[in-house]
Specification:
Blueprint: H1 8-37, H2 41-45, H3 59-96, H4 111-127
Helix pairs in contact: 1-3
């Protein structure tokens, strides 16, 4: 009885695609952060000061805009974490196809020993 394993090339392609999606997410995050950090403070916060106390924004407006900026920074941090995890999963998929490469962060070096156990089980099933 033969176990179903997807072919190496299909699994490696899927791993590469997932890795490229993760790298694409990271590139998007870094470009957004670059635009954010190279903008002027008035442009980032969305407020401008004229020097006239009647037309300048109040403390509540400044505080809410600053809170929005902190939210955007937290969002960028979360997106960079997600992108790096997706890229890591792509590398794990790519490397776990081969029996000689155990999954990174997986079940602790199952590589060659697991392949030997599977071969013995297959031999036992075909010998009966």
């Amino acid at each position: 009885m033969q176990r179903f394993h997807c072919t190496d090339i299909i699994c490696r392609v899927i791993g590469l695609v997932v890795f490229c999606v993760g790298v694409g997410l990271l590139v998007t995050v870094f470009s957004m952060a670059y635009k954010l950090f190279n903008s002027s403070p008035a442009e980032v916060l969305g407020i401008s000061f004229t020097g006239n106390p009647h037309k300048d924004p109040g403390a509540a407006t400044i505080g809410s805009q600053f809170g929005w900026l902190l939210f955007r920074l937290g969002f960028l941090l979360l997106m960079s974490l997600a992108g790096s995890l997706v890229a890591q999963k792509g590398v794990n998929l790519y490397l776990s196809v081969s029996q000689s490469f155990p999954m990174l962060g997986g079940n602790g070096g199952r590589g060659k020993k697991a392949a030997e156990i599977d071969k013995e089980a297959d031999d036992h099933l075909t010998a009966s």
